[in-house]
């Protein structure tokens, strides 16, 4: 479970279709509970249990003696339209002292749906470790920390919580590792460079040059298209941000909706265990 | 279960078909009957013939070629499937499918010209390559199937070959030898082998250290279909940098990681060092580097790198874009980032850095380049695949250009059909493949790579030399470099590469040979394995946070980190269980490395592996019941794999195992058991009886000589017309065989004879390993061989409709043919069976004198004039005409091949060798009457000098003699298999029972005096090989003869009837002795004496008594100098240096 070792994990609900809707965020204390309850199942096993529900615990049989089954819990799987994104806060310790660290306050959240690019702003604590003068002088008075991360697709990751001795699994759409993003440095660099260029212009650019004009046809073969990562960067640069509202304390509500949704649905394995294993390998 | 029985039935059926292995798999074999007890410890070797039946000796070539034709070709097509036009955006052409040698409509393979016909007619054995295409013509989309884009040379006995699965009778019908292993190509009539190439493994990190310079470097050679590049992470003054050929400067590692999006120093530290404080201390300096450069953001880092990129691009990119491109595609090119997230790349670079840091901390944590697990073997299939993709890309490019050319025209009368121009370029692929295979020059444009000497002509000197060539591995290391590392025998070669078979001299240790049970893997799909790993509990690397990356074992798939696992041992065991049950391909290897905290999974091709019996709980899983079923033909080798009794281990996984040599050695902690220890030797070394008793270099010498032995070549040897073929007239199966000999069918195509040898001194003509031969033995056919030499003539057609012709024979006044034409028939060709002497003609060809003239327009019956250009036989001994073939080659020109045969009996100076690296020349041939004989009147065929033994220490030869002698007396063939074979004790017992001395020594009587010899003589049969070096081919002398044009000195070499050189060292001797007149005679008078006219006045040379410089004949003096000296003076003159001769009289008048 090393994924969650030193991290917060926050599930956030986000609807792609109704994009203006507020995103809900759960309370982080709930959240930690949730992770711990999930601790028994590895992510991959979560995948297996989806299809194998009826067969149950057969792969743990050998370990039974030193690892007895204490409790059997029924599983529920939702997975209709919750678009669940997991944020991993890299560089942030899970524990502060003995206590789990608090989820920071988030002032703004931006998302680029095509490039799956998340950006969230956390206001800086200007009381401690903050040099106000320097910020004002050098960095245009920066007062927020921006975290940025690319949502990575995954196959078979589930978030789970336990309610009334029942396990509820919700598929995770994307996982993003959020890392600090110093936009203010890049911004200042750009302006500085422009100023530099103005102050001491390049001798070569000063010299008069003969300009040759040529007409470029629209579908000129020499005009290459960008491919691969360059294209992805270009798309990301050109894509407009989606401003989202950060909503807190929605975890209970979310839980309820999942419980409600999964109620009365019984999952039946569509294939036998052998078929399943054959499918896997 | 139903499935299993069905499978068994088919196997039984297969056994009926495959005669080659039938003997070995017969229930009665080696005196063992069906009812006999099965002893697992001894009979488990039966797995070996079963293995060779499935895999065969050249199976690695066939597998690789089959993989290429069936799988790789489709991948190449898929990667290059679209052709778009720059002119017309609507146009596209798409390759849908590709097939070799089979049309989509028919269910059977196309008819191919049989391989033997290709050999005889100088053609290429190839099959058409068909593609299915889909393209636009105007507005319509058109599908077209079975478009031929070229012809692919076909590897013999591959699944595209007509010999595939052919039984003995079909092979005979096609004039093929059923024992011929295949695995080679026939290009323009010559048999070509693509040697196995050894290379350092691709896409793997190799850490090396230079202790003197205090440098540690991790390097990775990235190889994809498009590009090949090498990335280094190196230390410099204790700091770590990334180095790449297309980046001008070394980039501090922290900057690289920042460019990959790992911005915080904390995370960099976590990725590289984990929690280990000693690594952190070593690495910390590197973090300063980036802040010194004022680099804090990803954009800054990318721009820093972008500014240093030095690739040439057609497209102008901004500095930032250059940086992105460099990180995404150039560095570590085999991980190409398509999207925004560079995390994978960052992790890879971080892992490289970690390995460097580890090696800095502990210098022992470096990799060994020479370790076989770090090597990959490149086989015919992979090499052709590289070549084909190059040619296919060029083909597509040319095709596209010609499409564009047509589409550019503004108003075309009709809609353009792209199919019409596809055939124009099809010759490119065909000729490109043919040229590469026939010359051996592999030039790959996209890698800018040129490789020479990839292919060799299949040596048909003997069956063994052909076989030895198929198992040969050539290394990429330079032969001239004086390094011992790559040449040394690596412990990891055990069981994979033959320990004895390597040439002596410059290629020693660089050219290796495969061992008997080696298999070389082909590429396997990565994706399903990755999925499986996640199912087995591996946590995906994209989800793991940097802090906990190094807490658990990392899981690496083909060198790339894909995740981490908490319980590595359980994971590895589970994975292996899946492999043993056949859920995962048996050639995928998995092993753990505790130093690197890593589990490595390899699915790539070119790994060397071999099968081993699985041991569990101290018990071999192969039981006698299984072996019984194997012998009864109910199971075959693949069933053993499927049942999980046997598995393939590659070199790396072997390190994870504890392997018992013999069943008696198995203890509970062991994991595997050898199938047979003698499989550490290859096919060629397997011929040696009792090699484990020999000094090891002797076995190596025999491996070289076994390939030169004259013997039977193939069952179709008399149907072949090769440039030069040596055949033994009466070859014999050796008295002392090995199991390898039976497995490779050497007993069916032997190269040698069992000679009765007396080890004693005789006549004094046996010093320095010379042998004394018995004249009567030679009369009876000992060592008799024949040579067959081919002459090819093409009757050319010329542009002016003239053509070469074959003239008839010329007769003298009596109507008898003139002497030169005596062996000719009325058709102007030698008559089969006629003897040709030196100077006689056997192809009476004439060429037209006016072949370069313009064609005659009137076409009046002008008699064409012909000039005779007969083919004249030259040789010290006459030959016989064996075969004459007239045919038509590929380009419709008449092709004549004449085969000349010469029968040779051993003579003084012919070279012989036993199978123990003991070579010797025939020193004297003695009449049988004069030779010693024993009580029974047996006279030796060969007398060998006993001095051959003490220094050579070939004890195996002595045991061979004893075993052979026991076999003769017992009427049995004995075994000298490595690490086994007939026991000396048993052999001595037989000797004693038959009334001979236990030691193999006999009492002999002198043939000359009839007296009993003073000592007992070691006397018995030893298998002797006649080697191809024969006096008749080498003898040479000259009194006068041709001279070189330039220097007027005698020509060089036997083939040019050259002189025998008095070299520099010989000259020194003569000078030291003071024999000046001898020197003058040797160096000038008998060589290139030349009379010049020297002008005494100007010192320059004139001619015919006239000095052109002084314009007078007054002071001309005639003198003799070497022509070479005169030439030197003139060459100096041409360089504006005037050498002037100042002449004086030595003797005053």
TrEMBL record, chain A:
Keyword Nucleotide-binding: no
GO cellular component, one term: RNA polymerase III complex
Superkingdom, taxonomy of origin: Eukaryota
Keywords assigned by UniProt, alphabetized: DNA-directed RNA polymerase, Transcription
One Pfam family this sequence matches: RPC5
Region (Disordered): 1-68
Keyword 4Fe-4S in annotation: no
Biased composition (Acidic residues): 25-36, 52-68
GO biological process, one term: tRNA transcription by RNA polymerase III
Name of the protein: DNA-directed RNA polymerase III subunit C37
Gene that produces this protein: RPC37_2
From TrEMBL, chain B:
CC terms in the record's Gene Ontology section: DNA-directed RNA polymerase complex; nucleus
InterPro entries given in the database record: DNA-dir_RNA_pol_su2 (IPR015712), DNA-dir_RNAP_su2_dom (IPR007120), DNA-dir_RNAP_su2_hyb_sf (IPR037033), RNA_pol_bsu_CS (IPR007121), RNA_pol_bsu_protrusion (IPR007644), RNA_pol_Rpb2_2 (IPR007642), RNA_pol_Rpb2_2_sf (IPR037034), RNA_pol_Rpb2_3 (IPR007645)
Gene Ontology molecular-function annotations: DNA binding; DNA-directed RNA polymerase activity; ribonucleoside binding; zinc ion binding
Enzyme Commission numbers on file: 2.7.7.6
Cellular localization per UniProt: Nucleus
SUPFAM superfamilies per the UniProt record, alphabetical: beta and beta-prime subunits of DNA dependent RNA-polymerase
GO terms under biological process: DNA-templated transcription initiation; termination of RNA polymerase III transcription
CDD domains given in the database record: RNA_pol_B_RPB2
UniProt key word Nucleotidyltransferase: yes
Key words of the record: DNA-directed RNA polymerase, Metal-binding, Nucleotidyltransferase, Nucleus, Transcription, Transferase, Zinc, Zinc-finger
Record domain RNA polymerase beta subunit protrusion: where: 56-431
Domain DNA-directed RNA polymerase subunit 2 hybrid-binding: 684-1056
Domain of life according to the entry: Eukaryota
PROSITE patterns reported in the protein's UniProt record: RNA_POL_BETA
PANTHER family according to UniProt: DNA-DIRECTED RNA POLYMERASE I SUBUNIT 2
Free-text function comment from the UniProt entry: DNA-dependent RNA polymerase catalyzes the transcription of DNA into RNA using the four ribonucleoside triphosphates as substrates. Second largest core component of RNA polymerase III which synthesizes small RNAs, such as 5S rRNA and tRNAs. Proposed to contribute to the polymerase catalytic activity and forms the polymerase active center together with the largest subunit. Pol III is composed of mobile elements and RPC2 is part of the core element with the central large cleft and probably a clamp element that moves to open and close the cleft.
Family: Belongs to the RNA polymerase beta chain family.
Official protein name in the record: DNA-directed RNA polymerase subunit beta
